[in-house]
Amino acid sequence: MNSSNKNSFGVGKGELIEITYEMSLPMRLDRWLVSKRPEQSRARIQYFINAGLVLVNYKTAKAKTPLKTGDNIQIWMPPPEPLIYLKPEKMNLNILFEDEHIIVINKQSGLIVHPAPGHKSGTLVNGLLFHCKDLPGINGKLRPGIVHRLDKDTSGCMVVAKSQESLVNLQIQIKEKIASRNYIAVIHGVPNTSEGKIVGHIGRDKLNRLKYAVVDEKSGRYACTYWKLLERLGNYSLMSFKLDTGRTHQIRVHCAHINHPILGDPLYGRCKKLPCKLDGQALHAVELGLFHPINGEEMKFEAELPQEFQKLLRVLKKSIKV
Q1: Which of 141, 160, 198, 234 has a CA that sits 20 to 30 A from residue 275's CA?
Q2: Residues in domain RNA-binding S4 (predicted)?
């Protein structure tokens, strides 16, 4: 039912939804709600739960609360957020490849991929809308053509779809691990071995909601990162990483988890003087491999290191020789 008056949730306008859980097997509250409200993102569903807008058997619950047959669930859905009008903006894009189906770019550090609250303009999507006139309508209003994303301060290879057919094909390649994504980074310290893998479920940090952390299986999503030591640079190491999964902040979280955080990482790094100025973490998506979504051609792209990343390597190598 709909209501415009305040209610037991202590909020105003919105929609009250009441459902009985009828499945025979237990299921986490947040995952079940996502299946029931596919128009809402997982992040938004978890926001509703954390804000106390979801009751299980008339009591506030947590995202990981297991539902049992016969449980009563009440959800107070606030009105949808107003859509952000996406304005095309002229932007200097570093284009590695482009045809009528896809565009591959070398994203610069400091550039946000798609609009979000507080960032309605100046994003990669705004620049893509100016450059590609047919993107609107592909993959939703706020993320047109976006197949995968890079964090704001992570630079490197990204592929963007220019048609719905290309988008679906590329998303499948990412999901089925057909596409490959390789990164390089400078980390604090030196690993004990020359290569290995980091396995750890990733979920929201319990103490800081802006961060992610390695958590237990019930609280997070499986994540696996392969790594190799490329070069020891004094108290630092140049590393290569290959993603087996693609979770938010995955490489950054996994590096911090093994006590080798990425140099310059504002969220997961160490608070110490840097060898030289960095605008963000020293993490770069150096290589992207995929099959063309339309003609099936195998393709591989390499993105040149940003100037400040190259300077960092020069400074570290020079300090070793001194």
Answers
A1: 198
A2: 27-84
